[in-house]
Amino acid sequence: MIEMKNVHKTFGTNAVLRGIDLSVAKGSSLVIIGGSGTGKSVTIKCILGLIEPDSGQILVDGKDASIGDRDAFLARFGMLFQGAALFDSLPVWQNVAFRLLRGSLKRPRAEAREIAIEKLRRVGLTPDVADRLPAELSGGMQKRVGLARAIAADPEIIFFDEPTAGLDPIMAGVINDLIREIVVEMGATAMTITHDMNSVRAIADNVAMLHDGVIKWNGPVTDLDTTEDPYLHQFITGSATGPIAAIR
Ligand SMILES: Nc1ncnc2c1ncn2[C@@H]1O[C@H](COP(=O)(O)OP(=O)(O)OP(=O)(O)O)[C@@H](O)[C@H]1O
């Protein structure tokens, strides 16, 4: 369970988060939508403790996320970064096993490699990919490797940052389905940032829309099409007219 209570964050004169209240139940999948620059990434960075909020509270399983052992806290999370963010000089298996080769999650090298190969298989990649370099793979394969890395240490909570950015619609659909399957199978709590409405429908149990520093709308994905909220309606229909200014 992740809870944010009245979280504020201002950079200089830019008040990005102006009282975020959000809760994600254990084992559920929340997708955060909202225009560019509305603070979706800042929200996730606050939960991870990469950015310190000015005020408000963030609780993970009822405990204040800013107190206690950072390493043990971060070990509970997996993350799929935008653009997969693989290390070019490391073979695929070492990218997948990155956190299993160092730090508090360290395993013997042979075991880490075995886990990497098993996770690669889970995302549809054959073991021969393990010894290749990321640059030798297509964008869709790199995304799968990023996904394998996110789940390598069997995290309880997984963040997906723009998981389909830069992929063709078919590959995007494959990645969305994989994310949904894996999250359900692992029983993980998931938070995803996306602009892709197909991802929202494929991945979300619940949707939160960020606008003007607050959660403007929050509800089950099944309510998306029947909502009368003008902000959400404009966002999901991609309309230039409505309460959200089209020129920013
Ligand atoms: N470390 C930082 N220092 C100063 N300003 C920052 C910092 N991080 C984010 N911001 C600002 O906070 C605002 C929100 O940024 P954020 O990256 O969270 O947006 P976003 O909703 O994820 O956007 P996008 O959809 O384009 O990725 C932006 O105006 C950005 O410039």
From TrEMBL:
InterPro entries: AAA+_ATPase (IPR003593), ABC_transporter-like_ATP-bd (IPR003439), ABC_transporter-like_CS (IPR017871), P-loop_NTPase (IPR027417). Signal peptide: none annotated. Keywords: ATP-binding, Nucleotide-binding, Transport. The keyword Ligase does not apply. Residues 2-237 form the ABC transporter domain. One of its GO terms (molecular function) is ATP binding. Coiled coil: none annotated. Transmembrane segments: none annotated. It holds the Pfam family ABC_tran. This is Putative ribonucleotide transport ATP-binding protein mkl.
